[in-house]
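Annotated sample (chain length 90).
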Amino acid sequence: MTAKAKSGGRTAGAKSKKVRVRLVRSTIGFEKSQAKVVEGLGLRRIGHTVEVVDHPAMWGMIHKVRHLVQVEAPVSGGRGRAQRVGHDAG
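Output written by the structure step:
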């Protein structure tokens, strides 16, 4: 069985749409489950930014810690400023 067949036909290739997530507040003082979600997103320290696949499961994780993170949509083309996404954008 191929890797594509095992994953149900979906692969996380380079062409997947991505979203930037930045940790802007500490997880100290919040539930430990929220710290686990931040860790699951790949964020390690305040100010750290990662790109995650734009997928409903990731948006569920982001929603759970929305008070700790800032979400940005990367600009296509690789250079330039990212645009903020969400209820606090603008």
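Annotation: Residues 60 and 66 are 10 Å apart (CA to CA).
Annotation: The chain has a mean pLDDT of 82.
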